[in-house]
Structure to design on (667 residues):
């Protein structure tokens, strides 16, 4: 079955460029798999069923259900890192990190005990004890520092590998079957997928590891030093109104009450943190997208003099960013008020609580200092959420954004399987036919018809012109032929072992050297400089021959006509069996267009050509024409005409057709 070269899909018959590209892709994939997967293939678990909002739900309840679904969707994919098809070192790093956390808490306890001993020795003026304890401190400090460094290595190792594994999974799904293109054609919350993959996915994998390490450390620290507080503090006896009240474990109770007040305050003050962070991230993404649009369409904007209008749009988008940042700053200021106040008061509280016992002689100075240190550690552990609530909110927003992209990819995958909406089948032709469209219907992703039932058979070497008014679905039909448009019914069939090459109206020019741009999608070194120079000469780009090895922003340097000529040079190098031209000469004048078509026919005499174009002059280069006409229920194939090109009279035929169509246009 024919496979489009432009999508880098495997085919039985490959050019040298194709072999090299496939080889390099395979090598790259192997490197990624070596880092991210044990068995070399990631199997995505099925996504959860989409929650349909209950009609009786309020708007807030429906929105909360959507957010809950998104977090569930994220974890279904993300937890696969520790699954059968996950990273082979995931559990080793995870268990190692847990062991390091436990050991670090142990060293914390050792330093806490040393703290008591050193102050007791100072209180007793025991110089020998102080000297020995000073010698003990350095191994404890060095061990604690080394454990901290090892803990950072293990934690960031998990983050790096998890991000690599999940990025590989999402990017593979995004690039498969042209989904990166199809996302532009369907509705859904998946704007700026590149930002979600690069930035949101990074935060979505970094933060949970920090949270897991932080919560584990906080829990172990709290449990360990609560025991210390209970043991050292004992019970506090106070006399109130002649009554004696004994409070067992008063330091523990004080630590819990203090932490509850601080955490409750931060939860109350920062309850809008998640929504504010999500709004801020969305505003940032929209601002970045607006700037990218200006860069990508710089020539058109400059020619039209649209700088002021673009500036106005950018200013409005940036104003939205600043507004969201102001809201976020307000949230941060309120939480800082609590966290900063808590960090100042926490060390003083245990000293005040222990002062009565120290003054009556029931506690030593060392015990007071040990209790103060333990109280601070417990308070830090209990206040972990206070300090990390902003990051938790940011993670929620990022995880939901990457999950929204996953949901859109889920929808495209369901369309590919034919779930709910019909899917165009792809197969092989029977006999000698190079291409056949069997009862082909093309629809939108919601089932709306674009092109109705179409029956076309294209024989080897035939040159077919697809014509029709703008909006009749010609380009959509071409996308369906190329496999980029999955929605519809019927089938598109190719002759086995034949390769298809697409020439779109706006050729893609990759970054890097001109050599890479000429060879694309093949590898730059698959053809010699001489071969590329010859291809450039044939398409009228001799002035670029000396710049083949030059690296420059060719997408900005080359004009629209030069880009289309460059696309024809690619075509000559790749030498495919089936060529699809989608308005591929629209930026060329009539003379240049004739030259390009003459070259294709001369250099690829056996190639089967399918062209989409409005210009009637192109009929002279085709042996057959089909016409699409807009009808209710989708465009229909209304005529199938055999064309008989006549050498030497091509211009006359073109003028005749233009004169014949002139009254219709005037009308």
């Amino acid at each position: 079955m024919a496979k489009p070269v432009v999508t880098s899909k495997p085919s039985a018959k490959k050019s040298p460029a194709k072999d090299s590209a496939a080889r390099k892709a395979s090598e790259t994939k192997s490197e990624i798999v070596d880092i991210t997967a044990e068995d070399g293939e990631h199997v995505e678990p099925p996504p959860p069923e989409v929650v349909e909002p209950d009609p009786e739900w309020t708007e807030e309840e429906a929105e909360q259900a959507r957010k809950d679904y998104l977090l569930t969707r994220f974890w279904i994919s993300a937890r696969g890192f520790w699954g059968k098809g996950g990273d082979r070192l995931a559990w080793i790093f995870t268990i190692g990190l847990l062991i390091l956390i436990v050991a670090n808490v142990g060293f914390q306890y050792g330093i806490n005990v040393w703290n008591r001993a050193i102050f007791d020795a100072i209180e007793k003026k025991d110089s020998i004890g102080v000297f020995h304890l000073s010698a003990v401190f350095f191994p404890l400090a060095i061990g604690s520092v080394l454990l901290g460094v090892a803990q950072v290595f293990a934690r960031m190792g998990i983050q790096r590998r998890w991000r690599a594994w999940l990025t590989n999974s999402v990017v593979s799904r995004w690039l498969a079957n042209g989904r990166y293109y199809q996302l532009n054609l369907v509705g859904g919350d998946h704007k700026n997928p590149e930002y979600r993959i690069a930035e949101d996915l990074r935060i979505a994998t970094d933060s949970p590891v920090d949270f897991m390490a932080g919560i584990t450390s906080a829990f172990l620290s709290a449990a360990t030093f609560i025991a210390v507080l209970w043991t050292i503090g004992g019970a506090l006896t106070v006399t109130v109104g002649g009554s004696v009240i004994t409070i067992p474990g008063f330091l523990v109770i004080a630590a819990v009450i203090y932490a509850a007040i601080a955490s409750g305050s931060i939860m109350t003050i920062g309850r809008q943190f998640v929504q504010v962070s999500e709004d801020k991230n969305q505003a940032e993404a929209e601002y970045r997208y607006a700037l990218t649009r200006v860069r990508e369409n710089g020539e058109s904007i400059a020619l039209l003099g649209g700088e002021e209008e673009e500036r106005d749009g950018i200013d409005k988008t940036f104003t939205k960013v600043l507004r969201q940042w102001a809201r976020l700053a307000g949230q941060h200021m309120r939480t800082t008020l609590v966290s900063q106040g808590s960090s100042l008061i926490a060390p003083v509280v245990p000293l005040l609580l222990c002062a009565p016992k120290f003054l009556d002689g029931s506690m030593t100075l060392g015990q007071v200092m040990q209790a103060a240190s333990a109280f601070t550690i417990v308070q830090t552990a209990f206040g972990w959420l206070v300090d990390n609530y902003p990051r938790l909110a940011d993670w929620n927003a990022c995880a939901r954004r990457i999950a929204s992209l996953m949901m859109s990819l889920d929808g495209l995958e369901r369309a590919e399987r034919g779930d709910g909406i019909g899917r165009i089948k792809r197969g092989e032709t029977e006999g000698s036919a190079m291409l056949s469209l069997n009862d082909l219907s093309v629809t939108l992703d919601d089932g709306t018809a674009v092109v109705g039932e179409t029956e076309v058979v294209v024989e080897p070497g035939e040159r077919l012109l697809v014509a029709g008014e703008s909006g009749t679905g010609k380009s959509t039909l071409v996308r369906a032929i190329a496999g980029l448009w999955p929605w519809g019914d019927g089938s598109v069939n190719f002759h086995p072992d034949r390769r298809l090459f697409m020439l779109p109206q706006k050729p893609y020019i990759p970054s890097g050297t001109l050599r890479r741009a000429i060879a694309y999608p093949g590898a730059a070194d698959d053809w010699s400089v001489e071969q590329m120079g010859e291809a450039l000469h044939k398409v009228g780009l001799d002035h670029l021959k000396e710049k083949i090895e030059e690296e420059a922003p060719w997408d900005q340097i080359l004009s629209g006509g030069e880009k289309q000529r460059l696309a024809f040079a690619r075509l000559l190098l790749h030498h495919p069996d089936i060529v699809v031209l989608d308005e591929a000469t629209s930026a060329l004048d009539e003379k240049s267009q004739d030259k390009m078509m003459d070259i294709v026919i001369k250099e690829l005499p056996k190639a089967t050509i399918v062209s989409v174009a409005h210009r009637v002059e192109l009929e002279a280069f085709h042996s057959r024409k089909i016409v699409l006409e807009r009808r209710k229920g989708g465009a229909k194939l209304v005529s199938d005409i055999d064309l008989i090109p006549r050498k030497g009279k091509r211009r006359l035929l073109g003028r005749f057709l233009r004169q014949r169509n002139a009254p219709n246009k005037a009308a």
Observations:
- The two ends are 45 Å apart (CA to CA).
